[in-house]
Amino acid sequence: MSTLSTFNELINYIEENLFSQLNVTELAKRTKLSVYEFRRIFSFVVGFPVYEYVRKRRFSRCIELLLNGESLSNVS
Fold first, then answer.
1. In whole angstroms, what is the distance from residue 25 CA to residue 76 CA?
2. CA angle at 73 for the pair 71 and 76, rounded to the nearest 5°
3. Separation of alpha carbons 72 and 76, rounded Å
4. What burial letters (b/e) apply to 41-62, b meaning 16+ CB within 10 Å?
5. Distance between CA atoms of residues 63 and 7, nearest Å
6. What is the pTM of this model?
7. How far apart are CA 9 and CA 7, in angstroms?
8. Residue range 22-50, pLDDT digits in tens
9. Residue 20 gets which letter from DSSP?
10. What are the residue ranges of helices labelled H in 1-76?
């Protein structure tokens, strides 16, 4: 499996677990890379570090929920 398809699967995993506790070590294990390589490649592929990506996605998802009149208390 190519690195790009592996990262696409990882992005899907992050999106499905966006409001769960995400650990960079566990994410790196999913890609079969060291934490150092994972961070480096993730930043290159996505354009910014993994925690910044997660923070921005959580923020934008909360905005979507609020604009749709949904409660944030149900976010998990």
1. 21
2. 110
3. 9
4. bbeeeeeeebeebbeeeeeeee
5. 25
6. 0.83
7. 5
8. 999 999 999 999 999 999 999 998 899 99
9. S
10. 3-16, 24-31, 35-46, 50-67
CA dist 5 and 67 (Å) reads 32
**What tokens appear for 44 in the block?**
């290159």
**Burial of residue 28, with CB atoms counted within 10 A of its CB: 0-12 exposed, 13-18 middle, 19 or more buried:** buried
Cβ-contact 41, 7 below 8 angstroms: yes
Tokens of 54: 């997660």
Structure tokens at 40: 């480096």
Please give the span between the terminal C-alpha atoms of the chain, in angstroms, as a whole number. 30
Cα–Cα distance measured from residue 41 to residue 24, given in angstroms and rounded to the nearest whole number: 13
Kindly report the number of other CB atoms within 10 A of residue 13's CB atom: 14
What's the full length of the chain, in residues?
76
